[in-house]
Amino acid sequence: MQTLTLPRPDDWHLHLRDGAMLKAVLPETARHFARAIIMPNLVPPVVTLDDAVAYRDRIMSALPDGMGFEPLMTLYLTEGTDPGDVERAAASGLVKAVKLYPAGATTNSHSGVRDLDKVMPVLEVMARIGLPLCTHGEVTTPEVDIFDREAVFIDTVLDPLRRRLPELRVVMEHITTEEGAAYAAEGGDSLAATITTHHLIINRNHILAGGIRPHYYCLPVAKREKHRLALRKAATSGSPRFFLGTDSAPHIDALKEHACGCAGCFTATNTLSLLAHVFEEEGALDRLEGFASRHGPAFYGLPVNAGSVTLEKRAEPCVWPVKIQSEAGPVTVFNPGFPVHWHVVT
Ligand code: NCD
Ligand code: ZN
User: What are the pLDDT digits (tens) for 253-309?
Assistant: First the structure.
């Protein structure tokens, strides 16, 4: 029997939501992960240090007794964000990043940024104090094809911003293209990228061929097969520029299976098993530790977790619940579409 033990991993991009949904999904992450970067796209969003303190308290109250978990909070950047509040938030130690959502790019992003010039004073403070900017890297102009939004963002927004403010530390969140992987690989110490579990597994055919499958719809949307292969290469390359951000994004089934369905794949429950499967397929099981447990803390300047998780490869495939039940409604767990034999045992 094959086993694999890793330092306890972290998730560098996670949606926990609030209320009944938070209660239902938090244990799914805390079971395997020590920490996670918590996305601030609530309604209303987590904009100020006070908002982040209150949200962190709600997360800790929702954590079942006996489970350990540290939420690493983020602030949602708006055109009204106060640079002084961001500096205090970083100094408090509670806030680890600021999130840029271009207005309209994804779920709950209408308070996002329309004009980067308006947030330059905030970005200048962040560059000075070393607080990372996490980017949802898609342009939202209707003329740009949805499959091109990431590549156009890199050329027209991200690269000009990094030339203007080279000291700014940036995480390209949930990259989905070979252009994204190439840009991150060459960006130097101030740049990194997160990659989701599902973008290593699905391409756009999974969403659209043979019927529309709403549980595979997320943003940025999965692209062609060549991009999935480029992401696998980046994730398993051993480069410290790439680390795990699941972007596990729960929505109740009624809103996914809908005429205008929400974007988001819920992968918290089975991410580690799926990653072991993917890394083994790529002949890179020994590099999963870097991707899931080491590169993220190194970029964020945090220690690697003291605990560990062990996975065992067994003859029988893993069985996960098809859905997680919440008081808000059921949430479908990401189905990779193939059997997975790596069981998380501790
Ligand atoms: C996320 C959500 O539902 O909050 N959805 C998604 O498809 N990934 C938002 C996001 O990260 O884009
Ligand atoms: Zn996300």
Answer: 999 999 999 999 999 999 999 999 999 999 999 999 999 999 999 999 999 999 999
With vertex at residue 174, the alpha carbon angle to CA 190 and CA 292, rounded to the nearest 5 degrees, is: 75
Fold entry, domain 3-344: TIM Barrel (3.20.20)
**What pLDDT does 337 receive?**
98
User: 266 CA to middle of ligand 2, Å?
Assistant: 11
Residue tagged 């050329």 (tokens): 155
The partner residues of 344 in beta bridges, in order of sequence, read 311
Query: Distances from the Cα of 67 to the Cαs of 28, 266, 319, in angstroms?
Result: 11, 21, 22
Residue 68 backbone phi and psi in degrees, to 5 = -105, 140
pLDDT tens for each residue of 90-120: 999 999 999 999 998 888 888 999 999 999 9
Helix 49-62 vs helix 83-92: crossing angle, to nearest 10: 40
pLDDT per residue as tens digits for the range 129-144: 999 999 999 999 999 9
**Ligand found nearest the CA of 136:** 1
Residue with tokens 């800790």: 60
Q: With 80 as the cut, is the pLDDT of residue 1 above it? A: no
Alpha helices, DSSP H, located in 6-47: 19-30
Question: Average model confidence (pLDDT) for the chain?
Answer: 97
Residue 104: predicted pLDDT: 87
Question: Does 51 participate in catalysis according to the annotation?
Answer: no
Regarding the beta carbon of 247 and ligand 1, being less than 6 Å apart is answered: yes
Whole-structure pTM value: 0.98
Residue 280 identity (one-letter amino acid): E
Does the C-beta of 136 come closer than 6 Å to ligand 1? yes
One-letter amino acid at 211 equals G
**Residue of 50, 247, 253, 286 marked catalytic:** 247
291 vs 31: CA distance, rounded Å: 19
d(CA 285, CA 279): 5
Residue 298, number of CB atoms within 10 A of its CB:
14
**Sign (positive or negative) of CA dihedral 164, 134, 229, 279:** positive
